[in-house]
């Protein structure tokens, strides 16, 4: 598994994993946290394994995270022997790795909102002889004051906001690694305190996907359904999105679509996550389209991803456009981005989306991505830097893009 991860990093031109993280990954048997799973799956670097599901809502409640993102988060956390670490969201595997990295002088607290998850993690840790991780049941949004302060807080559930307890319980030079939902996109932010009181600066931004954080800070976005036939559902996810008229958008989906191509190409393995973040930053009427397999098969929609494809709501609110992709003629390894518009202003909305994709390609594709800064919710507008401001209960997140030709 570790060799495969190292080879992938080399192929993608990424830094090799820190030696200590690599050693920990080699030492902790992941299979012990996934009893009964075939070894090929237990050691698949990209496989997150769902261990608990909410069947009614059709969402995962708990999982043993994929080794690649676990490794990235451990790398970002820069764990040292002696560190006191709070892990929010248990499973056992990550806690065992942290335990190894912080050594006998360190301390690991792992808290999960679900008592069954904690009991399972405890059993699995015990099976490999780890009995000095402090496991607790509770809402991680409150941190774990009894063992604070922490040098590192590593959150392993998708957070929507930054609760004050994390700030209060982290040391002055502490690091907070947290998968954060920003306008519906989840990015793992590595946060350090900025010089201004109560502010945070993201020093790294990584792609990730996590189960949603539950409890006090749980947050669900609006999701109007545009087509609700079983197995063929199409919906729009509207996190911070505009008010829409569901009936008009359902009618829009039924209209003949208009496709506009952008002339922006992409290679098979080329990361384009900064494009999603850019579109989410600059589009006021931002949305994400989700579609079940049946809807794509039936030709209702042709998005790039079923789970959340960048989309825009038209200015009038009666239509939308989403991103699509086609193979470049005669070149098996190149693809072109496009936009599919639906509704009375289908062409204009699709052209607008294609234009924004072009802007990303011209000005930001080769750049470092946005600067992401978090300010206290009470910060007035005139104290914020320029950029997209995303308001939450406790924080104001600002995404600032600088042109990199
Ligand atoms: C992806 S799993 C954790 C994976 C784990 N760290 C591992 O070693 O693979 C996310 C966990 O977060 C938990 N969770 C969700 N909301 C929480 C909250 N408010 N406080 C603590 N845990 C929470 C879920 O119950 C779930 O078990």
From TrEMBL:
Its EC number is 2.1.1.77. PROSITE patterns: PCMT. One of its GO terms (cellular component) is cytoplasm. InterPro entries: Methyltran_FxLD, PCMT, SAM-dependent_MTases_sf. GO terms for biological process: methylation. It is an enzyme of class 2 (transferase). One of its GO terms (molecular function) is protein-L-isoaspartate (D-aspartate) O-methyltransferase activity. Keywords: Cytoplasm, Methyltransferase, S-adenosyl-L-methionine, Transferase. It is found in: Cytoplasm. It comes from the Bacteria. Belongs to the methyltransferase superfamily. L-isoaspartyl/D-aspartyl protein methyltransferase family. This is Protein-L-isoaspartate O-methyltransferase.
